[in-house]
Description:
Blueprint: H1 2-33, H2 40-72, H3 76-79, H4 81-107, H5 115-148, E1 156-160, H6 166-182, E2 186-188, H7 199-209, E3 212-215, H8 222-232
Parallel strand pairs: 1-2, 1-3
Helix pairs in contact: 1-2, 2-4, 2-5, 4-5, 5-7
Amino acid sequence: MDSLVFKKFDFKKRSILKKLEQDIQNFKEELAGKGAFYSGYNITQTFNLLKKSAEEILQSLLDTYVEVGKETGEEIVITHENEILNEVNNLAVSEANRVVSQTSELAKSIRGNNPSEVSSFGTNFLIDARDKAEVLIETAKRRIKNSVSQKSFTDEVFVIMQIGNPLLDKIWKTVYIPVIQDFKLSPKRIDKHNEGRFLMSEVANLINRSRIIIADLTNERPNCYLEVGYTLDDLTPKNCASCN
């Protein structure tokens, strides 16, 4: 099974990199045709092409595990959870290094490039990669759990909100906690009530078991939207206070 996964993935990866090579060549020819030279802006454009290919390669690995699981009839996404997380981690590091290395080489003698964008890519890409893999795994677990029997809810209320904002932290303490407790329910927030495991796994677990979920989308945090999307994936009317 493992050989089938990586055989399929290797084919997808080579296809993505071949297209990347052609895209960069087309970009260079377009500049040459205009009599233009590489500049900081051009380096950024090339970096974006490299970044896009890295993201596509990561997604193709996750998609391959799902496809092979369907072909073999095995819930690979769940039974090979640790393997997938490790492979995604290794691939993310590898692709981040490739993008940073290629962009840095290209920008060595060019003025006006943005080194901070390149240098921060590796860490951000690794975090995003882990989040994608964890969401995929937790979604598969949730789908199977829900297909077996109706889940029973705890008396917990999970509050999705920005973490580390002094004003919102004050609202959490002075509004959310007392109001929720007035209804004999237990308020939960991921930074206050996690057990030190994979963060997205713990978020998914709180969403799955909570009787009520409150989403405070103040300041438009991407992680909050991700958690709301996960919640709405198969939310039932009985625990949705604002489905309409």
